[in-house]
């Protein structure tokens, strides 16, 4: 008898779980409360131009690499075209105007860094050795289930980024450069594990790409695959309750009283939202309290730019600009020194990209900055909110203009979003960029397990395992591994590239 699985939420974790289970014989139904699927994969259009909201580029997608295997297995490669970022500088980091380029591949990366730091060859090799060691130690990140090293995994999960770098790299400036892209994971000094940094560094150093036409193509492709295997993805289905008996979850109930009975339930919602939907005594009060009080990552303020036609040449790199000499503590700011840093990049609207049609500037913003408008809804937040956004946008554009003096002249118009916007469109807690902050100082209590005390209710998404496309998909393998086995899923993935 075919087992039924209901998945709540259509972010990357929910949709990829749906594909894996549908391919393995489950009757899958994905329920999405909004009219648009995708979570952080969503895009939006303004004035004829498309903008991404959450996921802007990916790594390790060359033939035979981890993301290539995952894309083939999930059948995303059928629908999604990739555009390679500059291999000599996929990331560019600038401290007070002094620029450093990140090149793809270990040899080229070290060679490029030695142009800036000629006396640091031994340190750079030691750093890359650790990155390689940490990445290879994780069987799921390397897709080699038999190759795992728990001692390495545990050591670098428990040590902070700055702790390991202080031990390995003797040049202060080089230490800062190596974490110049830390907004990709909202790292905090003394709190974020070195493993998080290592996985991100390895992921993009192998190869880096943008998604032609926007990240929503990934979401749409996953929906197509679920449907090919007999599953369903339903929008405007707002789940308000996960109904349970004494031992199991039995149904997801929507706000119009529709019941979706199933054998297995997977929630792609923030864990705090999931437990609010579930009144089972199997979820103890201590667990509920811990989940609700976990810290979330910082939010962001974004300026979405529409460029004048054929004026702004396409920038095939991601640019991280900092006012000072360090990328750390940019989330700690005042009105006077915001923004301390930003990410500026262009969207790959088409494969032929001599000129950019659109781009974004993104900088940290605390939820407290917009707390006074918390009870308002999109489009109805008042003139003071619009003025707040305009002032922030102009300040952010002015900051970027220090590095790109002609930027303002190339802008036709721009749009903005705050942590409130992000919260409402993607369902993230307090508009946090990457969900729950994995603070190593909190020990195991900072991590959310994919299993719950309700045996047939599982969790997926960026709050389980890690954020980003690789972190979420690795978490998907872990979650679905409860039903199929992660060994079998990895075998199937490996088979897909042979």
Automatic annotation (TrEMBL):
The keyword NADP applies. Keywords: FAD, Flavoprotein, NAD, NADP, Signal. Residues 12-373 form the Amine oxidase domain. This is NAD(P)/FAD-dependent oxidoreductase.
